[in-house]
Amino acid sequence: MANNAGFNGAGTAAAQAAVAMLRVQGGGQVRLLLPIPFEADANLQALGLALAEIEEVPLEPAAVRNLAEANSKATVYELLIPAKVVQAVADVRQIASGADLLRMARGVVNGDQRLTVVSVTTDYCGAVPYLYRLRAMEQSDASSEG
């Protein structure tokens, strides 16, 4: 038991350090696109009115890195987001883990770029998540102007 307590203490410290590290390194804000569960109202549908199905939830600090991949038609990004920040949003929505929350996202907005999340990876210290790494893509034809 004493060993687990030490790991959890170190994990908690790592989670707090991740927030501080990204903030000091100039981490900005991204917005997570989450589905909004609601019951369809027949009266609203009959009038042609629809409720917003997506909610933009700000997450900060977050770092966004461009991962250049040769011979790719899409731009690939890695987003680094502290687990403590994501878990706070998951707790409000009564979702068990931050990873589950990120996996249900419909995408991420970085500035004016809408990105599609391809994968979510969790970094742990002991048994405590301290950082989420999202791999996301923006299609090159969607970002080009004509």
The portion of residues assigned to helices is 25-40%
Structural class: alpha+beta
**CA-to-CA gap between the ends?**
62 Å
Mean pLDDT: 82
- The oligomeric status of these chains comes to single chain
Q: Unreliable segments (pLDDT under 50, ≥5 consecutive)?
A: 1-7, 142-146
Q: Report the biggest beta sheet as strand number plus sense, adding barrel if it closes.
A: 6 strands, antiparallel, barrel
Q: Largest sheet, order of strands side by side?
A: 1-2-3-6-5-4
Q: Tell me the strand percentage band.
A: 35-45%
Describe this structure in words.
- This protein has 146 residues and is an alpha+beta fold.
- The chain has one domain.
- The chain is built from five helices and six strands; from the N terminus they run H-E-H-E-E-H-H-E-E-E-H.
- It has a six-stranded antiparallel barrel with strand order 1-2-3-6-5-4.
- The longest helix has 23 residues.
- The radius of gyration is 18 Å and the shape is globular.
